[in-house]
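Hey L., structure's done. Input below.
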Amino acid sequence: MGKTGKFWTLRYIIINATYFAVYSGIHAYASVFLLEKGFSNTLIGITLALANILSVIFQPFVAGLIDKQGKLTNRNVSMASTALLLIGSILLLLIKNGLVVIFIIFALIYMVQMVYQPIITAMYFEYEAAGCHIYYGLARGLGSCGFAVVSVFTGMAIGRFGVNILMVLDIIFLTIALIVLYFFKKPAVASSPASASEKEVAHNNLLSFTKTYPAFMLFVVGGVCFFFAHNAINDYMIQIITPLGGTEASMGTAVFIAALLELPTMALIDKIMKKISVKNLLLISGTAFLIKTLLMLVAPNMVVVYISQAMQMFAYAVFIPAGAYFVNQTMARFDQVKGQAYINCSITLGGVFSSLVCGRLLDIKGPHFMLIVSLIVTTVGLGIAFVALKVLGKRKEAT
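Output:
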């Protein structure tokens, strides 16, 4: 089983759990924090949209630097990102007012955390190749559980201590993460003579990368469509369920169901992949996103909404680990961090387009029409994914 004596899985679980605990504070409660600091809804939208767009630009760029196999390793970049998030959280805790300063700092830490996410995944494959046996699915699933539990706890803590408790909690979690990352050192591996493929230059140019992995990049476009609908449901849940008699409490239950049900699927993903190929799992995931959106569209009451949310265990919970393994199976070693970054970019871009389009659709036509559009976009995405994985995917992409 490899070098299990070093508790690799336990430490990787802590890295994931602390990351998503901080993700809850910076992302899930972004509006709550910024509203308290005097931001308007419009300015909040601008802040988050800017941060997401910057993350889409920087994720492949940083991944390209790591793929060059220099001093910028996955672990070093993870530590630097965690340190930047820690400094930013401390500054946001100390600064009492000043919209411009808060805008800059919050947009930067939001962006840094998005850039950091695919690097955690890439770090798993790097350590696994070095003989450090890690249960990735379990660690990633417990990360989602950490997000769910911390989100509930944070909501209660804000009610009691005020919005600054968000940064206090982030500082605690980031400190733990930095300590664990510092000691999370990969053992030295005896180097072997480089093969012909290993001598090739990494495909850091977008055009070169797309020419080398056309099926993968087309699948990324399909992923953007999946997460358009996914984010539309998550971001505008209260508007969707209010006509059905839902409340904020109902919304909390719906979000909790989705997050909690991610764990069993992610924890068992290694066993599932022995029965079903990664490409077929990704198509199953896309189909589940479609069914989830359809159920939300036709839901007559909250029971069907909860059933829709339960589809998370076949949609998001399959997409995340299957997407990670798809990169590892498809790409040459020097391109894998970029591949993880592009998978994460599909999620981010889906959210950006959803934020720009769905808010306007809600104002003009209401939640029902927004869900119709989301269903159409998801259907198109599933078609694109099928072409990418079944048609173009027949050719071997890895060189």
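The domain at 204-399 is CATH 1.20.1250.20 (Growth Hormone; Chain: A;). Residues 1-5, 191-198 have pLDDT under 50 and may be disordered.

-- N.
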